[in-house]
Design goal:
Layout (H helix, E strand, L loop, with lengths): L2 H10 L6 H15 L5 E5 L2 E4 L6 H11 L7 E3 L10 H14 L4 E3 L7 H7 L1 H9 L3 H10 L5 E5 L15 E6 L5 E6 L7 H12 L24 E5 L10 H5 L12 H7 L1 E2 L5 E3 L6 E3 L1 H10 L2 E6 L8 E4 L4 E4 L13 E6 L36 E6 L21
Parallel strand pairs: 1-5, 2-3, 3-4, 6-16, 8-12, 9-11, 12-14
Antiparallel strand pairs: 2-15, 5-8, 6-7, 10-11, 13-14, 15-16
The structure holds manganese (II) ion.
The site of manganese (II) ion has 6 residues, from loops.
Length: about 400
């Protein structure tokens, strides 16, 4: 068993690894990440995850529900640390898995992967408590500076059953943690009048929506933008300074997250029901409306933007005619919010017919050679959301019977 496999085994049991091993791990991780572009290219199949926030036992639950590494390819959209009790074990395990299986693990940066934020929201204190010095925190922050800012997923299938694409018209499937289907939304034919779309989908699906308020409502009528385009993954959202994916590639990312500018916006912004751009109540990044997302997706040959950054009680929320989705992977956030979590599975296009064109997100790349399947074009990737709850209390080993009240600290 290699040292790395030993470290993985130790971290999986939620025990920190020694400081010199952390230093070595962070060094190896940095050498790997330095070679990655600001926007990593990932090929489906892949399982996309949102915020983790140091909830180690819930991360184990995520792997139980979504499949273990390296059997399942994962893309984590940042905010690994802060808030929860086990930021250190969670981040180091993900980092070990990245170093061990670099092609099966993609980590992109969240707004919490920052010196300033981790000093306020828990990770710094946790490192100090667990090691007696800030060295490990410093090693981790040096890795944060090298994390990619986004990812482009190529080759996702428009069907969830690669074996029988002709029979499968599922656009969205929602499963629970046991794998049972909670709800299923058939893909609407692109030539159907929109009112009919709404009627038929509400008839078929609204009662079966699973958790109330789920963004995957019956009103989804396929993606907007390029229906055969790639999927952009980013922690927060868009920036008024970034109108193409290529502009993200030009950012000098190897630094602390700045207080403003394109890099800051990608990690801090949120979609909102507004026109155009708005000021963010977070004090960093912007709010952006449906029009912004649709124009961006069209211009960049994207079918969908996947992002994290906002707690959604149902684990995921599609907005703006399914042009953007929020994925949230920290169940019962902060051990008290009562939300469920979700991951988004994209399956591989095995048809080989070019039905789901592979593009690199650049303008015009997918304009030729699209083969339309019977019944008109299929819009966007088929999405399977696996919804899961917090790990049961008895799997958590120790702590937190009674968290110490703030005024004692
Ligand atoms: Mn965030």
């Amino acid at each position: 068993m290699s040292d790395l496999d030993k470290a993985i085994a130790q971290l999986r049991s939620c025990r920190p690894i020694p400081e010199d091993q952390v230093r070595e791990l962070c060094h190896r991780a940095r050498e790997l990440l330095i070679e990655e572009g600001n926007v990593v290219t990932v090929t489906a199949p892949v399982t996309i995850c949102g915020d983790i926030h140091g909830q180690f036992h819930d991360l184990m639950e995520l792997f139980r529900v979504g499949g273990d590494v390296p059997d399942t390819n994962y893309l984590f959209m940042g905010d690994f640390v802060d808030r929860g009790f086990y930021s250190l074990e969670s981040f180091l395990l993900l980092l070990c898995l990245k170093v061990r299986y670099p092609d099966r693990m993609t980590l992109i940066r969240g707004n919490h992967e920052s010196r300033q934020i981790t000093t306020v929201y828990g990770f710094y204190d946790e490192c100090l408590r667990k090691y007696g010095s800030a060295n490990v925190w410093r090693y981790c922050c040096d890795v944060f500076d090298y994390l990619a800012l986004g990812a482009i997923v190529l080759g996702a299938s428009s069907t969830l059953s690669p074996g029988s694409p002709e029979d499968d018209d599922t656009e969205i499937e929602v499963c629970d943690q046991a794998g049972s289907i909670i709800s299923r939304f058939p893909r609407q034919s692109a030539n159907q009048p929109s009112q009919e779309k709404l009627d038929s989908s509400s008839k078929n699906t609204v009662d079966k929506t699973g958790p109330p308020g789920t963004g995957a409502s019956g009103s989804s009528s396929g993606s907007v933008g390029n229906p055969t385009g790639a999927i952009l993954c980013v922690h927060g959202g868009l920036s008024p300074l970034v109108d193409t994916v290529d502009k993200i590639r030009l950012i000098d990312r190897k630094q602390e997250v700045p207080h403003e500018g394109a890099m800051c916006d990608l990690l801090w912004s949120d979609p909102d029901e507004i026109d155009g751009w708005g000021l963010s109540p977070r004090g960093a990044g912007f709010l952006f409306g449906a029009d912004i997302v649709k124009v961006f997706n069209h211009r960049n040959d994207l079918s969908l933007i996947a992002r994290a950054h906002q707690l959604v009680m149902e684990g995921f929320k599609e907005m703006f005619d399914a042009s953007i989705v929020t994925v949230w992977s920290a169940p019962n956030y902060c051990y008290r919010c009562g939300n469920v979590a979700a991951v988004l599975e994209l399956t591989e296009d095995e048809s080989g017919t070019g039905i789901f064109q592979r593009t690199n997100g650049d303008v015009g790349r997918s304009s030729g050679g699209i083969v339309e399947p019977r019944g008109g074009p299929k819009n966007g990737p088929a999405r399977r959301y696996r919804v899961f709850q917090a790990a049961p209390q008895d799997s958590r080993g120790m702590p937190a019977k009674k968290p110490v009240a703030d005024y004692f600290l």
